[in-house]
Write a structure and sequence with these properties.
This protein has helices at 21-31, 50-64, 78-91, 100-119, 137-140, 161-167, 213-222, 244-254, 275-286, 304-313, 328-335, 348-351, 364-376, 378-395, 398-415, 430-433; strands spanning 3-4, 38-43, 68-73, 126-130, 147-151, 176-179, 194-196, 231-235, 262-267, 293-297, 316-319, 340-343, 358-361. The chain is of the alpha/beta class. Residues 41-185 form the Trehalose synthase N-terminal domain.
């Protein structure tokens, strides 16, 4: 059996006054014809990245609307996840090729997961498959009468042909695909119905819920950050595409001008990303002996609350990615009205339109200049952060992503009608969602 991720309950009514009213109103009527339908989201890990953070908030909201939804995980050993990491990198354009042994490892694990899926299908009407790790399961599970959606969260605009040629024949079984940006759609995608839905953050999650300033500062002092000194932070996986070593070099350029400046590199080590340990060790070696650089991980107790505090208290947050699907940490930081210096890649520019949120950079030198500029001009930094907060409120909160998903489900159900289902009671108050 596939593992089911245990999730809590959420109510859409609690977003009233936070997310735009028109979005909450639309969710009420979009969900009417879908109540009682069964949906599954399938991914590779329950923690350590944007996909898991989105699903932890999104799945309970599906259920709140009466769409019976589970979040399940594929199985795999270390060898399998080493191969999927290579596929992940290859689809983002990394050089190299898969060996026949690696292909066999990937497909053997996929066959086992397909068997577990078929024997525990529970008559799902919709199946969302997230990213490359489980991507072949739609083709390997032909007996499931579901509408299959592949949600690709990474930049596959210029995939390494050897990796894409291996994966793409298995994608024909999908009814629809979702990408963050139109530019990310790979060449000759064998899926005709393609949607562009940017990700979103949950303003009521522990990572984004407002913290009293005194509590946020106490949390940082507890983990070794001195809150009376200026602070620059990057929050991301320990991944070479996030360029943490580039952030260190940019910080080292700024440090002579701001002698007491601290740098926090907060990263998660996820079970589906064995390469993260190598990057973590490289960072430790590169920063050894500098007491003002703090390398923080989920394995030493740095979780959502600590990240929340880091993003809220930092003077500047950096997301200097070299390749990026979206970069949810940018929206998370802007929600706290903290300015961001972001790499001009992937979905980061759509979060930092001109004059809003911070600055876009291409090089280590530009990153250092932008950091120093914002540190020296706190009033300008505050204004950019405030504009960023409003941009996120209008475009990048979880109810908007739920609207996108429900529009797609309604379309797929219209193309191929759902079987009769019992109507599932919903916990939300429709009057509250309609603002009545």
């Amino acid at each position: 059996m596939l593992d089911v991720v245990d999730i809590g309950k959420r109510s859409l009514a609690t977003y009233r006054g936070i997310a735009p009213d028109e979005i909450l109103d639309e969710l009420h009527w979009l969900s009417e014809d879908l109540r009682g339908a069964r949906c599954m989201h399938l991914s590779s890990t329950p923690y350590g990245g944007g996909v898991s953070e989105i699903l932890r908030s999104l799945v309970p909201l599906y259920n709140d609307l009466g769409i019976v939804t589970d979040w399940k995980l594929i199985h795999g050993d270390d060898t399998f996840f080493q191969v999927t990491k290579r596929i992940h990198n290859g689809l983002q354009g990394a050089p190299g090729e898969l060996t026949e042994r690696e292909k066999a490892t990937y497909l053997a694990n996929a066959q086992l997961n397909a068997h577990r899926l078929v024997t525990n299908s529970e008559n799902y009407d919709f199946v969302f498959v997230h990213d490359p790790q489980p991507a072949v399961l739609a083709a390997l599970s032909p007996h499931l009468d579901a509408r299959w959606i592949w949600r690709c969260h990474i930049d596959t605009s210029h995939p390494n042909p050897t990796f894409w040629d291996f994966l793409s024949p298995y994608l024909h079984a999908y009814d629809a695909a979702i990408f963050t940006m139109r530019e990310f759609i790979p060449p000759q995608l064998p899926i005709s119905d393609v949607r562009i839905y940017p990700p979103a953050i949950d303003p009521l999650s522990p990572k984004n819920h407002p913290l009293p300033e005194a509590l946020a500062r106490d949390v940082l002092e507890w983990i070794g950050i001195r809150t009376h000194r200026p602070l620059v932070t990057q929050v991301s996986r320990f991944d070479r595409w996030k360029d943490p070593l580039g952030v260190v070099r940019a910080y080292q350029r700024v440090r002579p001008h701001v002698p007491d400046l601290q740098l926090a590199l907060a990263g998660s080590l996820a079970m589906d990303d064995p390469e993260g340990w190598d990057v973590y060790e490289e960072l430790r070696a590169a920063t050894a002996g500098d007491s003002l650089i703090h390398i923080l991980t989920n394995l030493v107790g740095v979780g959502n609350i600590e990240v929340n505090a880091l993003q809220a208290v930092s003077d500047v947050v950096v997301q200097k990615s070299l390749r990026e699907g979206f970069g949810l940490v940018v929206a998370e930081t802007l929600w706290k009205s903290t300015p961001v210096v972001g790499g001009r890649v992937g979905g980061i520019p759509m979060q930092l339109p001109e004059g809003t949120g911070g600055a876009l950079v291409d090089t280590v030198e530009e990153c250092a200049e932008a950091m120093l500029h914002l540190l020296r001009r706190p009033d300008e930094a505050h204004l950019l952060g405030a504009r960023g907060h409003e941009h996120v409120r209008q475009h990048l909160l979880m109810p908007r992503l739920l609207v996108d998903h429900l529009r797609l489900l309604k379309h797929l159900a219209a193309v191929r009608p759902l079987p009769p289902r019992g109507i599932v009671p919903v916990s939300f108050n429709p009057a509250s969602l309609q603002g009545v």
